[in-house]
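[stage:ingest] chain + small molecule (alpha-D-galactopyranose)
[stage:ingest] validated
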Amino acid sequence: MRPRGSVIGKPPDPKDSIAAHYRERYGSTPAIIVAAPGRVNLIGEHTDHNGGFVLPAAIDRHMVIAASPREDTLMCLHSVDFSSDASFSLDAISHDTQAEWSNYERAVAWALQEAGYELRGMNAVLAGNVPIGSGLSSSAAIEVATAYAFRTLNDLPLDLVTLAKLCQWAENEFVGVKCGIMDQFISALGKARHALLIDCRSLDHRLVPLPPEMSLVICDTQVRRDLVSSAYNERRAQCETGARLMGVSSLRDLGEHNFENQQVELPESVRQRCRHVISENRRVRDAVAALEGGDLPAFGTLMNQSHESLRDDYEVSCRELDIMVEAAWEVDGVYGSRMTGAGFGGCTISAVRPDAVEAFQAQVSCKYESATGLAPSIYVCHAEDGVRLL
Ligand code: GLA
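[stage:predict] done
[stage:export] C-alpha cells:
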C-alpha cells in the first residue's frame, strides 16, 4: 500500500507552460527560454567552502526563465510559483523585502554590473519545479538561469565557469549566504548521465560517468528549517578557525594522518568540524575511484560513512534525515544513502539497484511516515545537462 500523500514521480515540468505564461503576461512570444537545473550532491558535503572536493550531478528539475530584452534599464519580473510581480531599475538595485524571491535576480544583475558587464532590462517570467528549501539548490538554479538570460540577451563574453563564480559572489555578497561554489558550478556545467568531480580550489573539474546499474533516488523529508543559513555560516567560521589554528590556508591542505598527528589544541567542536571536512575530502576521491572501477558497494559504503560524519562530527543532520537514511539502509538492493545539501532537513540521496527501486519507495515511505507522521516525496532522478537555451 502506498502511504498517504507520498509522491512517486515528478510535478509538472515548468518548461511546458512557461511560454504560455509569458504570452499571457506580455502579449508576445519570449525571445529566449532558459532552463537551469537543480542538483544533488552524491558525496563531498561542506567541503567546497574549504577548498575541497565535491561530486554533484545536475538533475532533471529546473528553474526556467522566459525573457525578452527591453530598450531601457527596467527589469519586469513575474513569478508563476509565487503568483507575484516585481520590478526594479538596473540603475539602482536594492533588496526587496516584499517580493523576496526577486532578490536572486537583483543579486545577479548587481554582480554582473559590479563586474563591469553592461546590461539592458528585460521582461521575464520565472517558474520552476526544484522544491524550494529542500537542499536541491533552487536558488543556485535561479541565479544561473538569470545570469544565462543576461548573457544571451546582452551578448556577454562570459564563460560558464566565470558565470558560476559571479552567481556565487551574488549569493555571498547580495543575498548574504556564504555558500561555496558547488551549486552554481554544477547548475552551469553539469552533463547528462554524469556526475562532476570538482576541485573547489582550482576549479579543475572532470566528468564521472554514472553507471546504469545504479538509480539515484531522492527522498524529501518535507522538513524545512530556518536555521540553515546561520548554522551554515557558523560551521564555516569554525572550519576557518581550525585551519588558522593549524597554520594552513584551508582544511584542504591537511590529510587525515597529518590532522590526527598535529599538536595544536583545538576546541572540541572545531576539531569535529575539521575531522568531517578532512575525512570527507578523502571519501570523495575514494568514491570516484569506486565509481570508475565499477565497485558500487564500495561507493555506497562511502556514502553511508559520509552521512555518519555529517551527523556526528559536522552535526548538520536532524532526526528526520536520520530516520530516512536508516530506513534506506535497511532495504535490500541499496548501495548507500546519506543526507545531501546543507542539512537540517531537506533531502537524502540513495544509490539503489534499479530492480529494487519500487520496494525502496514502498518501504522507506512507510517507515518514514510511521516514525514522523510526515508523508515524504520519493523519486528517481536523472543526471542532466547544465544551463541551456530551450
Ligand atoms: C549548500 C551550499 C554549498 C555547499 C553545501 C554543503 O548547498 O550552497 O556551497 O556548501 O551546502 O555541501
